[in-house]
Fold this sequence. Notes:
The structure holds two protein chains of two kinds. Chain A is mostly helical.
Amino acid sequence: xxxxxxxxxxxxxxxxxxxxxxxxxxxxxxxxxxxxxxxxxxxxxxxxxxxxxxxxxxxxxxxxxxxxxxxxxxxxxxxxxxxxxxxxxxxxxxxxxxxxxxxxxxxxxxxxxxxxxxxxxxxxxxxxxxxxxxxxxxxxxxxxxxxx
Amino acid sequence: xxxxxxxxxxxxxxxxxxxxxxxxxxxxxxxxxxxxxxxxxxxxxxxxxxxxxxxxxxxxxxxxxxxxxxxxxxxxxxxxxxxxxxxxxxxxxxxxxxxxxxxxxxxxxxxxxxxxxxxxxxxxxxxxxxxxxxxxxxxxxxxxxxxxxxxxxxxxxxxxxxxxxxxxxxxxxxxxxxxxxxxxxxxxxxxxxxxxxxxxxxxxxxxxxxxxxxxxxxxxxxxxxxxxxxxxxxxxxxxxxxxxxxxxxxxxxxxxxxxxxxxxxxxxxxxxxxxxxxxxxxxxxxxxxxxxxxxxxxxxxxxxxxxxxxxxxxxxxxxxxxxxxxxxxxxxxxxxxxxxxxxxxxxxxxxxxxxxxxxxx
Lengths: 148, 361
């Protein structure tokens, strides 16, 4: 009981002492970089539509995503994306480029353990939970949609 | 003579050799000029960071044996440990030496743990010469405890930077050099911190506990030491330790500092400072031992702390226990008091100046 009280007091003391991230500069950086990534994506999409006028809009979006994923994966490989991430925080995690980074980075990291046990097993350690959450929520939404 | 937790050595073990090897980032840090070897590339010519860590530890052991001017066959036992699962760096490095090996795990406190055990072996006359070593690597620790290197995430301000480096010390029954006079073994202390990004706060209570036990057992005060140095509490953790000690009625003055806090310069972006086995091991085997050999430091209380956590335990909701072992090292150089006083004054003035400029920035 006494120990619990001591731990609680210590935790409160540490919570007051611990340096905090300043929210406003972080938010500004996040929105700035996130916005730039989205603008680049829109630019790529517009260029595709301009150069290939016969393409369906849906297909053009697909190509845009593929190009963005490739760029992020490439930047991860040459060690630039983590520097962007350090500056931008959520701004470079939320767009699809962040997803690409979260799959490429474990693949690079665990290549020493071999193709199967290293790359294949570890590739989705970070992105895996996101995929599971996406699938589960789509099931729930689908069920709701079925009944209304 | 021994107290509750403290051993006072009769046959004081002598530090006859030491060696430190660090990565390029560490080489640019505040202790840069003191290290024996700075690697150009942190993979050290190996194809994985685990292998690089093993090779670093191996070269630190070889370097320390050369520094002691003895032959590898004179060594009777190697005491080593590291942070990786099953302490692979140490045991795989020991594979290449034809010497008995004792693997230790004290997380980041391993340097003091190995020195304390080694000193006890020598004090009891069972061994004449032995090596104590430990090391850590930023990239191998990161992949074991945190995220892949290339992942674009941000670090919280209280987090620390695992030092890439290895240190080894040769202890001997006879010879010339600084002597280990006391060792205080610490208890495992847990004050209920569960934030894995805030190791300093998790380990500070362990440092407090060991420090209190040391002062109680020996009857000494902080003023009896030229330098009291903890391992890797970092900026936040060392501030917490000062507060905790003050709460217990002991005031830590300018002679107290923390290896992790001092390790990197401000521009190196390491937030709360350095951490890992290599942090205290490289500072001890470079800066502290060279100052003791010159007699610029007379008596040092070296007390690295370790966070005894694992990712599995943390994910299961366990809090982080800490441990801290302390050793006292005394210089064998007798010096003129006048010179000593001048040196002390110079050290304090430079510190004040550096604090001043830091605040302006």
